[in-house]
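Below is our example:

___
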Amino acid sequence: MNKNIYALFESRFPDDSAAVFLEHPRGNLLYSEIDSMTGRLSGLLRKLGVSKGDRIIMQVDKSPEAVMLYLACLRVGAIFIPLNTAYTTLELRYFMEDAKPTLVVCRPQDHEAISHSAQGFGFPHVMTLDDQGNGSLSDAAQETPVDTNTEICDSNDLACILYTSGTTGRSKGAKLSHGNLASNGQVLHSYWQWEEGDVLLHALPIFHVHGLFVALHCALLNGSKVIFLPRFSLPEVRENLPRSTVMMGVPTFYVRLLEDPDFNRELCNNMRLFVAGSAPLLAETFQAFEAISGHKILERYGMTEAGMITSNPYKGERLPGTVGLPLPDVQARVADKNGNEVPRGDVGVLEINGPNVFKGYWCMPEKTAEEFREDGYFITGDMATMAEDGRISIVGRSKDLVISGGYNVYPKEVENMIDQIAGVKESAVIGVPHRDFGEGVTAVIVAEHGADLSAEDVMAFLKGKIARFKQPQKIFFVDELPRNTMGKVQKKQLREDYNDIYGQ
C-alpha cells in the first residue's frame, strides 16, 4: 500500500467534480483540478531531474500555486522545504548550502540574488513564482504534459524538512516523514471532529506547521472548502466568518478581532471551532473572546519537530492557560534533567513519543542523539507541568526560545548579530509578554565605555541581516547585565525587570 500522504489526500477528494478546494481572490481551485495541476508540476520536476529524496526549497508568497507545488513534491517523493519569506538572502544561503536542493523556487524579485548563490553552490535550477501564480515555474508547467504517477513511498520516507533555529544560531532541519504527517493529520481530523460541510477560513502563512500541515491537511482529509486569504486582513476575516465553520489562527488574530467594534456574536453564528496556537494565548483574550463571540477558543500545543502534540478537548472543558491533553497515540511526560518523571504538578521538561515525532535533524546525527532519550522520547526543551488529569501547561522554555507572533526566535542568534555592532560590549535577548504577539523580542545591551550608540543604530545594523520577526521590538541600554555567582546572565531576572514594557 502506498504510504505517500498525497495518495491519502487523493482518497479523500470529493466525488463532486465542482467541489471547491481553494476559494481565493483570483477565483476557485476545484478538487477535480488538483490532479492535473500537480501532474503538470510533478512532470516538470521530473523533467528537471528531480527524483525521490531530492530537496526542493520554496520561498514564495502565499498562493494556490504554492500549495500545488507542495502537493507535486509529495507526488514525486521529493523533500519539500518551505522557508519564511522574511528570511534574508544571507540566511537563505545557509539553507541552500545545508540542504543542497535540486531546485529553488523564489519570488521574481529575489531571482537574481538567489541564482548567484545557487551558481556558487553548483545547484542547477532556480525558478520563480509570484503571489498571482505567475513566474517561470508556472510558464514551464503549462508546457509540460500531465504526469499521472504518484511515487510509491514508505511511511518512513521523508516528505519535508522544516528549519528551526538553534540556540547556537545554527538552524536545524527537522526531518518529517509521510507517516509523521499522515498520523498527525488524521488524529487532528478525528479529535477536532471535522464533519461534512465544514469550511476552513485560512489566513495563516503556508511556510509554517500551523498553516500548511495543521490547517490544510485537515481540510484535505475532509474534502473541505478553504477560504484562502493571502494574509490576515481584519475586514476580509470579518466578511468571511459567516460563511466559515472552522478558523485556525495565532493569538494575534483573536486580539485583532476583539479590537474591532464590528465584531460580534452574530458573525460567529455559523462557526463551529476557533483554534489558537503557535504562541501562548492569554487568559484575558480567551475570556474576552468567549464573552463577545460565545465561543471558547481551543488552544493546542505543537512544535516543528512533532506537529501537534496536545489539545484542549473538542467536547469538554477548555481551560485558559493550559494546552490540554496529549493527543491520541502521543505519549507525554514531564521529566527532570535525567529523564525521570516528576510528580504531577511539579515543573520539568516536557518529553514526548509517538508516530508524529520527527526522524531527526538533517545532517546532524550528534544533535539528534542529544535530543532523544534511550527509550525514544524526544526532549522538547519546553518547561511544563502536568495536572492529575493529564492536562499540560507550558510554563517556560529551558532554551530561552522566544515565540513572537507564532514564529520561533532563538536569542543566541540575535545576540550574536548585535554583538558584532561597533560599540556593543554584550547583549541579552529575551521574550516578555506582548498582548498581540504573545512575546515581544527585547534586547538589553551593555555598550562599551564612551560609545555613542542608540536603539536606532542597532536597528539600522540589523535591517536586512536577519528576518524582521527576529529583530527586537524594543531595545534598552544598561550598565551591566545581572549574573549569578557562576557568571551566567540571569535572563529570568531580565524578564521580570522588563515584564510590563509592552503593556497588558
DSSP finds 15 helices and 24 strands in the chain.
